[in-house]
């Protein structure tokens, strides 16, 4: 037997032993690394793809995730023949069978030579190694913040990242070619886990329902198609089957699959953006800045709050990376289809937007060719056949197999059309989209954030116009078409009513920024040409990026005396909203035993705490305080209600602001104002962090 095959078998054996014998540390790390890389790597070798190290690693992660989801789905189909297919032994056995099949293909399709393109003599590698300190310090800083409310380390990381970026800029071509990918990965990972690790529980908004569904799969031992707390979310295998597989083989506390391990997966996205940008810009330094623009987005930094989109965006970004590669057309098409199907399995809206691009690119390209826009060197796309296949897959999965997500999509378009009668109503548009045109700006940090985002939108627009009308010999008409379609989608989120309400524009922008990021650089270059001033534009790019970084990490609010970040500000509005205490979950567990059949009244964010303690779908009323009238059932007062005397009526739509010298939080009131409805209840449970009130 060949040595390379023996090495893989031994590594698989060690991984199995670590899992079955529950070896500390080894079980929590080796299975994640092995099953997130090796299946995809073996498939790449079977296909005979010749790629450089980082690109090969990215595709290995993407293909491994696809294989894990697909294997878990096939295993789930054995229910009820296997009573609990999504449990440790069936999952581990299935993964071993998967590796065995791939090894057989690997044995007969390769010559056994493992080639590497890692040359230490090419440049300075030490700056890349320095970046590994960011995630390490972030983990330590998160522990100090969670335990002792000490934020010095986390602030140190946030202040060090801009200095590190400036340092890399000064090195430029002297650094090793792997420096930028390593730096991007570690910066992205640090920011992701910094906003994932607060609390011992998942943190965010959508994530609580995702976690409930994930936990239901673990409890039931299988995934059910419908009849859950949210069937649309349940159709996303990225938050049901995939995390269940990871949880079973890693044996870590369930929340940390989403809070920590998914951070490592999400950190590969900026590297895909880096390769796409490098191919468009032909400059690795500029590609680095374009990738930083992608990282410094609200919907990326806080994406651990909606993990179904995180996984879907990994597949989407890899699909775009494949399209711009020099791979053989047949392999490119196969990989694109794999990532396309994976996106459909992972998140309905990301898949729908992906599909819109796929459907519209061929006719727009036809128009471009007719009017001779652009000067294509080569074609990236595959035409109508892939678009038709995409529609079939979406319809089969979302409309036939699961159903709910397709209904949600239809409802979204119906509400968009019906809302046209209220075209000029601000209430029909999301707050973040209104701020783009200057509506709702309340304080200087908010103004700074709005100005920097508007400048970046303007530069991307200038870059797009330059690309469309001047043309580039090394950019295809398909890429130009995708840019035009994306700009139209962005405009619709501001112009059309309800669209931004139904799906936030920041999330759309992050998705299409995967391939729009290079236009930011092109826009800066074009602006310099328009002004006819030969000034160095790298400092301008750096200034814009660092101001953007300050805005999305809320450092501008912090240093203006407005606590806003839930990661490092213990007294912030967002921490009161999202941070979950052990006492809150303990109280919810008490309710699950003593009040499961009664309505539980709470404020706008009490439901996220209650879901952590219930194993069934609780009867919730989150408008108890909003309605200002007594209701039957229990009243659940969470930590913020009890210890800070604050009640959240609705999700805050704006940042805190100073009014007459006092900090005012949006949609937050003092609990003292609700004594009239609370006085009709008796306190029947008190653990110091939670009060539960019952009927007199």
| Average of per-residue pLDDT values | 88
Main β sheet profile:
5 strands, mixed
Radius of gyration: 25 Å
Quote the distance from N terminus to C terminus: 77 Å
Can you walk me through this structure?
It is globular and about 75 Å long. Helix content is 64%, strand content 4%. The N and C termini lie far apart (77 Å). The protein is built from 33 helices and 9 strands. Helix 16 runs antiparallel to helix 17 and helix 19 crosses helix 20 (404-418). Residues 419-429 and 433-440 have low confidence and may be disordered. The strands form 3 sheets. Strands 2-1-3-9-8 form a 5-stranded mixed β-sheet. A two-stranded antiparallel sheet has the order 4-7. The chain has a two-stranded antiparallel ribbon with strand order 5-6. It is mainly alpha-helical and 696 residues long. Strand 5 and strand 6 form a beta hairpin.
Q: What labels would you give this structure?
A:
globular; 4% strand; 696 residues; mainly alpha; 5-stranded mixed sheet; single chain
In short:
By secondary structure, the chain is mainly α. The chain contains 33 helices and nine strands. Helix content is 64%, strand content 4%.
């Amino acid at each position: 037997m060949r040595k390379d095959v023996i090495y893989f078998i031994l590594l698989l054996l060690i991984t199995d032993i670590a899992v079955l014998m529950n070896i500390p540390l080894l079980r929590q790390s080796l299975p994640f690394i092995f099953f997130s890389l090796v299946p995809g790597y073996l498939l790449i070798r079977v296909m005979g793809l010749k790629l450089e190290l980082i690109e090969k690693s990215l595709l290995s992660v993407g293909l491994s995730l696809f294989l894990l989801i697909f294997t878990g789905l096939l295993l789930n189909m054995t229910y009820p023949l296997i009573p609990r297919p999504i449990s440790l032994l069936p999952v581990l056995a299935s993964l071993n069978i998967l590796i065995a099949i791939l090894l057989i293909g690997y044995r007969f399709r390769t010559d056994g030579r493992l080639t590497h393109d890692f040359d230490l003599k090419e440049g300075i590698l030490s700056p890349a190694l320095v970046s590994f300190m960011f995630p390490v310090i972030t983990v330590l800083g998160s522990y100090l913040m969670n335990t002792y409310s000490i934020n010095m380390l986390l602030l140190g990381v946030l202040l060090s990242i801009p200095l590190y970026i400036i340092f890399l800029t000064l090195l430029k071509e002297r650094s090793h070619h792997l420096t930028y990918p390593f730096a991007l990965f570690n910066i992205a990972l640090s920011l992701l886990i910094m906003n994932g690790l607060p609390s011992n529980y998942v943190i965010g908004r959508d994530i609580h329902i995702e976690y409930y569904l994930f936990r239901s799969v673990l409890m039931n031992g299988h995934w059910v198609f419908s009849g859950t707390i949210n069937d649309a979310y349940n159709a996303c295998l990225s938050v049901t089957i995939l995390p269940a597989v990871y949880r079973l083989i890693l044996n870590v506390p369930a929340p940390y699959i989403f809070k920590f391990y998914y951070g490592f997966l999400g950190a590969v996205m900026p590297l895909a953006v880096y390769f796409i940008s490098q191919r468009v810009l032909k400059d690795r330094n500029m590609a680095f800045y374009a990738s930083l623009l992608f990282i410094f987005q609200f919907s990326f930094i806080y994406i651990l709050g909606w993990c179904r989109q995180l996984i879907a965006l990994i597949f989407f970004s890899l699909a775009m990376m494949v399209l711009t590669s020099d791979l053989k057309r047949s392999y490119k098409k196969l990989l694109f289809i794999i990532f396309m199907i994976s996106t459909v399995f992972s998140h309905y809206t990301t898949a729908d937007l992906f599909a819109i691009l796929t459907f519209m690119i061929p006719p727009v390209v036809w128009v471009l060719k007719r009017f001779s826009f652009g000067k294509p060197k080569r074609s990236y796309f595959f035409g109508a056949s892939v678009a038709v296949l995409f529609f079939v897959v979406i319809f089969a999965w979302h409309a036939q197999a699961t159903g709910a997500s397709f209904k949600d999509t239809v409802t979204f378009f119906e509400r968009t059309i019906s809302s046209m009668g209220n075209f000029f109503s601000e209430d029909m548009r999301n707050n973040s989209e209104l701020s783009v045109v200057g509506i709702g700006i309340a304080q200087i940090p908010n103004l700074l954030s709005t100005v920097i985002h508007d400048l970046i939108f303007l530069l991307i627009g200038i870059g797009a116009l330059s690309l469309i009308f001047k043309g580039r010999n090394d950019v295809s008409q398909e890429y130009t078409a995708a840019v035009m379609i994306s700009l139209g989608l962005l405009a619709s989120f501001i112009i059309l009513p309800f669209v931004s309400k139904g799906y936030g524009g920041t999330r759309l922008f992050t998705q299409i920024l995967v391939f729009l990021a290079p236009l930011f650089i092109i826009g800066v270059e074009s602006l310099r040409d328009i002004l006819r001033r030969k000034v160095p534009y790298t400092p301008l790019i750096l200034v814009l990026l660092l101001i953007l970084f300050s805005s999305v990490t809320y450092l501008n609010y912090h240093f203006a005396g407005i606590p806003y970040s839930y990661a490092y500000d213990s007294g912030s509005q967002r921490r009161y909203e999202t941070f979950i205490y052990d006492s809150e979950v303990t109280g919810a567990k008490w309710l699950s035993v003593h009040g499961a059949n009664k309505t539980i009244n709470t404020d706008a964010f009490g439901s996220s705490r209650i879901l952590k303690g219930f194993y069934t779908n609780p009867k919730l009323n989150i408008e108890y305080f909003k309605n200002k009238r007594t209701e039957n059932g229990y009243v659940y007062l969470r930590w913020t209600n009890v210890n800070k005397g604050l009640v959240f009526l609705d999700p805050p739509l704006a940042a805190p602001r100073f009014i007459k010298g006092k900090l005012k939080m949006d949609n937050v009131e003092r609990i003292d104002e609700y004594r009239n409805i609370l006085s009709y209840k008796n306190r029947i449970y008190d653990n110091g962090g939670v009060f539960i009130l019952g009927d007199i």
